[in-house]
Amino acid sequence: MSLNSALEVGRSAMTVSQIALQLAGNNMANAATEGYHRQTIHLTPARGESLGNGNFVGRGVQLLAIRREVDTALQSRYRDALSEEHSAQIDQRFLTTIETIQNELTDNDISSLLSDFFNAFSELANNPEDNAVRAVVIQQGANLASRIADLRNDYDVVIQEVDRSLGNSVARVNDLLEQIALLNGQVTVAEGGEGGANALRDQRDLLIDELAQFMDVTVIEQSGGAVDVLVGSVPVLLGAESRGVELRRESVGDVIEVSVRVAADGTELTINSGTIGGLLNQREQTVQPVIDDLDTFAGQLIFQVNRLHSQGQGRDGFSSVTGTYKNLDPTANLNATAAGLPFRIQNGSFFIHVTHSETGTRSSYQINVDGDAMSLDDLIDEINTVVGVPNVTAGKGLANELTLQADSGYEITFSDDTCGALAALGINTFFCGENATDIDVNQVLKDDANLLAAGADHLPGSTDTALAIADLQDVQVEELGNRSLREFWQNAVNDLAVRNDAANTAVESSRLVRESLFSQIQAVVGVSLDEESINLLTFQQQFKAAARFINVIEETIQTLLSIA
Question: CA 326, CA 339: separation in Å to the nearest integer?
Fold first, then answer.
């Protein structure tokens, strides 16, 4: 081995020591940098020099690699945990919001107002002639209707908030995909097929972690250093090309359906977690269902109360009456979609009673109705011509509502509706409206409480209608799954409360999982200042030893030169 080779040994030791010192310093400098992955130096002995007879002597040390410490499997699990936590937080946020809006267990909740409303009819049965009691019934109905309508409006505000959050989240996802695509290109150029662009990779991983907060992603690294990002099996980013995502809204009947799709080709994405997954889930499985439940509840409250009220009689009859529901096509069958009536009419009949105001003489006329075969025009013809109810003229209002006009000196009342036509057309009803968006007390009753129906069968002092409506709160309704109005609403409220409790638990458990995985990742990628301090001392001593070794070799060379 020559002295030059010995100098090379010292030089290599000093070189790698300097690199190692710089690396340790860089790690210490970035100990608090978010997303930084600890870098480690890996050395290997230089190939030995042959001395003959099978003997070799070392030629120093070589730098094998500077590695960025990362556990891809653990990283993938961590990103899944991020997605699950953010999804759980969205669930908790909107379930709590809905529960707060419902405001149950107070004096102004639906359950309390529903009880007050039916109790008012019970009190009316005890005092049918008391004008104050009649006013209370109408006011309680108005309070209940107002609370339902307000709740429906609050639900609409929530779903608008969901849609705004979805729009903002999708915009942020597109921004992240563009940045990741840009970094992909930079990593590929910087590494040239060989690893080493550690700072760029740290930035990219940080962006992918943020992306995982919005949706569950799968990351696949390619041989050139770029990564592809997939949602399920659908790619949203391929190398340096972002395919983008978009929020699409489509009208399906009266409902707006929302989906997230790949902007490049319209492929729908199945997003199960993350902020976007949570928002889609809450929109489809919480907010829209509670809106549907409230509309169903309100619609059946309207129809069931009206079905009973429309057959009853108030203290006065009608000189004229106009239905509260318009008919879109008076020539279409009453149950046809083209007619646009909110409630179905069965095959049956109802009675129109015509009373002479002065003599009290009453005549009764049966009107046969088949909702699947008769149009509004047919029904009008049935009343005016087929049955020919005297002193009463049936017609159509400005919006094709059914109208009945009594001649001067006569009053109209109704009874025995077996088909539900009176309630479906809005004749002699307590409520108007179709669902929670427009429920209200019929303006006719607000104007004249004497038209509030408490009796039945035209019996003096009868309170049968008031009692029937009072009992309605506990009557099973087929359209509500054979549950009463009270049971249907309480079940909806209780189900939401159970889900909210589960969401609170899910947030806590997902947080613990994420924190545990983060701790495991930090054990791999995090910088230990104690460890780096030891590395500094180690390589400082190595550098000093190498410098001393070179100094010895130099002195040896000088000695040899002086001898020569």
Answer: 9
Nearest Cα neighbor of 313 from 507, 466, 487, 193 is: 466
Q: At residue 250, does pLDDT exceed 90?
A: no
What's the pLDDT tens digit per position in 379-415?
Answer: 999 999 999 999 999 999 999 999 999 999 999 999 9
CB atoms under 10 Å from CB of 270, counted, come to 14
Could you say which DSSP state residue 470 is in?
Answer: H
The fold of 319-427 is Immunoglobulin-like (2.60.40)
Unique residue bearing structure tokens 């999804």: 87
Phi-psi region of 460 (alpha: psi -120 to 50; beta: other; left: phi over 0): beta
pLDDT tens digits for 412-427?
A: 999 999 999 999 999 9
Give the Cα separation of 425 and 345 in Å (integer): 9
- In tens, the pLDDT along 316-366 reads 999 999 999 999 999 999 999 999 999 999 999 999 999 999 998 999 999
- Helix axis angle for 288-309 and 464-471, nearest 10°, is 160
Sketch the domain layout of the chain as residue ranges. 3-69+529-563, 164-280, 319-427
Read out DSSP for 47-93?
A: PPEEEETTEEE---EEEEEEEE---HHHHHHHHHHHHHHHHHHHHHH
Residue 101 burial (CB < 10 Å; 0-12/13-18/19+)?
middle
Letter string b/e over residues 55-91, b meaning 16 or more CB atoms within 10 A of that residue's CB: eeeebbbeeeebebebeeebbebbbbbbbbbbbbbbb
Residue 241, SS3 per DSSP: strand
DSSP for 120-139 reads HHHHHHH-TT-HHHHHHHHH
Residue 321 to residues 342, 357, 392, 412, 456, Cα–Cα distance (Å): 19, 16, 11, 8, 19
Sign of CA dihedral 374, 380, 381, 386: positive
Residue 429 has phi, psi (to 5 degrees) of: -105, 160
Non-local (6+) Cβ contacts of 139 within 8 A are: none
d(CA 146, CA 154): 12
Residue 98 has what pLDDT? 94
Task: Output the CA–CA distances (angstroms, integers) from residue 245 to 177, 248, 488, in the order listed.
Answer: 9, 10, 40
β-sheet bridge partners, residue 455: 313
Please compute, for residue 152, the number of CA atoms within 13 A of its CA located in the half-sphere on the CB side: 21
* φ and ψ of 345, to 5 deg: -110, 125
Collapsing DSSP to helix, strand or coil, 387 comes out as: coil
Cβ(268)–Cβ(259) under 8 Å? yes
Which pair of structure tokens corresponds to residue 272?
């199960």
Mean pLDDT of the chain: 91
| Listed residue (75, 121, 119, 109) closest to 218, CA to CA | 75
Please give the Cα distance from 62 to 44 (Å, whole number): 5
